[in-house]
Write a structure and sequence with these properties.
The protein is α+β, with helices and mostly antiparallel strands. The protein contains 2 helices and 6 strands. It is globular, with a radius of gyration of 13 Å.
Length: about 100
């Protein structure tokens, strides 16, 4: 997973899967747009993250069955290092 916070656009892009293009997009929330390829999410665009990230990311995670905590970690990492590409590897939870 990669994330980038573009301070000029005030938007975070979270790449979920490598894809040269998307077939379509889905506005899941007024501040969250998901790019889809073969109906699978490949990228999340989070607009105006300075207003908050929890609600739009929860909407994305709920609609597409994505890991909300991983999306939040990617967004928070991008905010912590703006205007730089962040790579993040999130493993599955270990069985207790």
């Amino acid at each position: 997973m990669q994330a980038d916070y573009d301070t000029t656009a005030n938007a975070i892009s979270i790449t979920i899967a490598d894809a040269e293009h998307a077939d379509r997009s889905d506005e899941v929330h007024p501040r969250a747009i998901v790019a889809l390829l073969d109906e699978q999410p490949v990228e999340v665009q989070l607009l105006y993250p300075d207003v908050g990230i929890a609600e739009p990311l929860a909407a994305v995670a709920d609609r597409y069955g994505l890991d909300h905590e991983a999306l939040a970690a990617a967004a928070q990492s991008a905010l912590a290092a703006p205007d730089r590409l962040i790579s993040l590897q999130v493993a599955a939870r270990s069985a207790a």
